Structures are given as structure tokens and as C-alpha cells.
Amino acid sequence: MKRHDYITWEEYFMGIALLSARRSKDPNTQVGACIVNKDNIILSTGYNGMPKGCSDDVLPWERDGSFQDTKYAYVCHAELNAILNSDGRSLADSILYVTCFPCNECAKAIIQAGIKKVVYLEDKYPDADATQVSRRLFKMADITLKEFLNPTFYSDLSLY
Ligand SMILES: Nc1ccn([C@H]2C[C@H](O)[C@@H](COP(=O)(O)O)O2)c(=O)n1
Ligand SMILES: [Zn+2]
User: Which residues touch 27 (CB under 8 Å, ≥6 apart)?
Assistant: First the structure.
């Protein structure tokens, strides 16, 4: 008889997003993303990090300071990296699994890429302007938003 306690597709893809986040060098917030098509095939993954060829030993990881001296000016977000890592595969009607709610810049890229659903784990900055703008854009663009809720699964895996 087959086993029945296997993980769901959602748990599997969010698990991959969580594992991707562990590649991030960001000392404060590690974010991972996984994009999947309607046949449950993984199209791409990504995590937040400095652009290719730009040393993450040289660029700043600080949160505070002048624009040029903080990470925010340089870091590529996990969602954008996942979109750019898709290597020409169509992302039309795909689903994005991401460990942190997308910012407004990523929301624009998500919409333009044709992603139709965003499953997120944590809404870390719910009151931030970037989050409010994202929610507004997702609503207008008819993107489905779903919060992923399954703390037991992740504490079992010690991934989160
Ligand atoms: N949806 C998101 C949100 C944030 N990030 C990245 C950008 C930074 O590397 C980090 C946030 O840093 P914090 O302000 O929390 O110190 O996470 C992302 O990739 N995707
Ligand atoms: Zn973003």
C-alpha cells in the first residue's frame, strides 16, 4: 500500500523556495522563490543577492546609511532573480512561491512576466508603502494571492 503522509505540491514548492533562501548572503533577511507551471514543473528558482559579477564581499549589506552605502541600492530580490533565471521559458499562467511578500518593484515584474498566482509565506513588512502598492497592483492585475500556512511542516524540517 502506498504511503499517505507525503508532502503536498504546495509544501514541496515552498520547501524549495525556503531552501533557495538559504543561499542568500543577506545577514538580515533571506528570501527564496520558486516558479512553477500548471503541470507542476519547476521553471525557475532564485534568492536575494548581489548582481552577477558584483562582489558580495565588497558591496554593502548595511540597512542604514546613505543610499549608496546600503544593500537596498544593489541587491536583486529573490522574485526578480527567479524571473530572470527562467532562461526564456514562458512564465505565462505560472505560480510563484516566495518566502516573503513581494515588493512593488517585483510586483511589476511578476505582472509583466504573466505570473498569475503568488503564494507567500511571510508578510514581513505589511505596513510598508512597497507592500501596499504591491497589493494594489496585484488586485488590479487580477493576480491571486495566497498566504501559505503550515508551521508544523516547516518546524519538522527545521528549515524556517
Ligand atoms: N519580497 C522580498 C522582500 C525582500 N527581499 C530582499 C531584499 C533585501 O535583500 C532583503 C530585505 O532586507 P531587510 O530590509 O529585511 O533587512 O530581502 C526580497 O528578495 N524579496
Ligand atoms: Zn522585490
Answer: 61
Compute how many other C-beta atoms are within 10 angstroms of the C-beta atom of residue 109.
18
C-alpha cell at 155: 518546524
Ligand 1 atom closest to Cα of 76? 19
Phi, psi of 80 (to 5 degrees): -65, -40
**Which pTM value belongs to this model?**
0.95
For the CA of 26, the nearest atom of ligand 1: 9
Is ipTM strictly over 0.95?
A: yes
Per the annotation, the verdict on 79 as an active-site residue is: yes
What spacing in Å lies between the alpha carbon of 103 and ligand 2's midpoint?
Answer: 4
Q: d(Cα 101, Cα 88) in Å, to the nearest integer?
A: 24
Stated as kind and residue range, the H or E segment containing 47 is strand 42-47
Rounded to whole angstroms, what are the CA distances from 66 to 37, 51, 70, 77, 93?
Answer: 40, 20, 7, 20, 39
Q: pLDDT tens across 34-52, in order?
A: 999 999 999 999 999 999 9
